[in-house]
């Protein structure tokens, strides 16, 4: 009797693959490879997208920076050409030129070239009825101060119908007072610091300190006095006398300028030209100043409704770079250099 239903032939029944078999290992490896490849492709696409987004961001940032730079430069140029100066320049007004900060030839100093240009424009403007020097400065270079003084005198002689008023704020000392003395009249606040008619040349000696710590000065010169005022060498009496004579000579120029500007208004005082400074109230009593007041009160006194700024604007590019900190290193270097140079430079301070 035959069996029914027939039994399947065991020889044709598929057997599960042994995980240890080569065929199974090959299938698994191929699947993993596909997954890894897929992930790599997706990661590459995502990375390209991120790179593209960052590229667009930096391009927009660069464009914005350049645009901002052009806007700032454009404003600076427009102000220089006629922005602040042209506003109301044909109508009666008091022209204002600032003397604000240290007087010198540095890029950030009050210098004779910029001030002279501003004064020239102020005097030539048809609407300016008088010029106000708005002063807030401790002084500085005697050369720059004298050049501005000379320019004021020249322009006053050419424009006899326009008076110059020096208006001292917090401080009008030394070289700043040198400039103020060229004005027709000087206005001060009762608490302003005024005067300091003297000359100074800072210098320090470290020869003894250098000897104690074993530092040898090997400076070589051609010229007997080329190393004059070297901080690592003792003071030579002959050189000291020469420097003192130099300072006295510059001081004499300062005194002559003040006397020429102030004339008989100066009161007799043995300390007048000693380098001392006084309050605005005391300065009026000594004849170093004339009245109490500021730019606004002066404009009202002259019956002028407008004041127009003629001071040349700072270079906008330099200002921007300075704010961004790119000039920090240069500023430190210049500070050290100026500190060293100041030891052999006469200053009106």
TrEMBL record:
Gene Ontology MF, one: serine-type peptidase activity
GO biological process, one term: proteolysis
Sequence intervals crossing the membrane: 56-74
InterPro entries: ClpP/crotonase-like_dom_sf, Pept_S49_SppA, Peptidase_S49, S49_SppA_C
Keyword RNA-binding: no
Region: Disordered, residue numbers: 1-28
Keywords for this protein: Hydrolase, Membrane, Protease, Serine protease, Transmembrane, Transmembrane helix
SUPFAM superfamilies associated with the record: ClpP/crotonase
Peptidase S49 domain: residues covered: 158-308
Signal peptide from the UniProt entry: none
One Pfam family matching this protein: Peptidase_S49
Domain of life of the native organism: Bacteria
Membrane as UniProt keyword: yes
Basic and acidic residues: bias regions: 9-26
Protein family (similarity comment): Belongs to the peptidase S49 family.
Name of this protein: Signal peptide peptidase SppA
Name of encoding gene: sppA
């Amino acid at each position: 009797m035959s069996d029914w239903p027939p039994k399947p032939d065991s020889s044709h029944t598929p057997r599960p693959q042994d995980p240890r078999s080569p065929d199974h290992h090959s299938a698994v490896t191929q699947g993993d490879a596909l997954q890894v490849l897929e992930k790599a492709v997706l990661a590459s696409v995502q990375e390209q997208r991120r790179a593209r987004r960052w590229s667009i961001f930096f391009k927009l940032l660069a464009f914005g920076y350049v645009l901002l730079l052009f806007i700032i430069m454009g404003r600076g140029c427009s102000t220089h050409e006629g922005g602040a100066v042209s506003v109301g320049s044909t109508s009666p007004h008091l022209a204002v030129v600032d003397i604000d900060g240290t007087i010198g030839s540095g890029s950030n100093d009050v210098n004779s070239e910029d001030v002279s240009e501003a004064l020239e424009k102020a005097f030539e403007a048809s609407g300016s009825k008088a010029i106000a020097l708005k002063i807030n400065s401790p002084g500085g270079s005697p050369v720059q101060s004298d050049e501005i003084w000379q320019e004021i005198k020249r322009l006053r002689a050419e424009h006899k119908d326009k008076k110059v008023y020096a208006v001292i704020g917090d401080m009008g000392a030394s070289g700043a007072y040198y400039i103020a003395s060229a004005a027709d009249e000087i206005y001060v606040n009762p608490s302003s610091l005024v005067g300091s008619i003297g000359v100074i040349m800072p210098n320090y000696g470290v020869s003894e300190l250098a000897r104690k710590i074993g530092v040898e000065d090997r400076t070589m010169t051609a010229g007997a006095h080329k190393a004059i005022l070297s901080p690592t060498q003792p003071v030579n009496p002959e050189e000291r006398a020469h420097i003192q004579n130099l300072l006295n000579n510059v001081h004499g120029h300062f005194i002559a300028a003040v006397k020429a500007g102030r004339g008989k208004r100066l009161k007799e005082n043995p300390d007048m030209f000693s380098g001392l400074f006084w309050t605005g109230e005391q300065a009026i009593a000594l004849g170093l100043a004339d009245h109490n007041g500021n730019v606004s009160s002066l404009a009202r006194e002259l019956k002028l409704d407008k004041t127009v700024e003629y001071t040349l604007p700072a270079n906008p590019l330099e200002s921007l770079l300075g704010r961004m900190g790119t000039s920090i290193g240069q500023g430190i270097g210049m500070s050290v250099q100026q500190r060293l140079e100041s030891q052999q430079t006469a200053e009106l301070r």
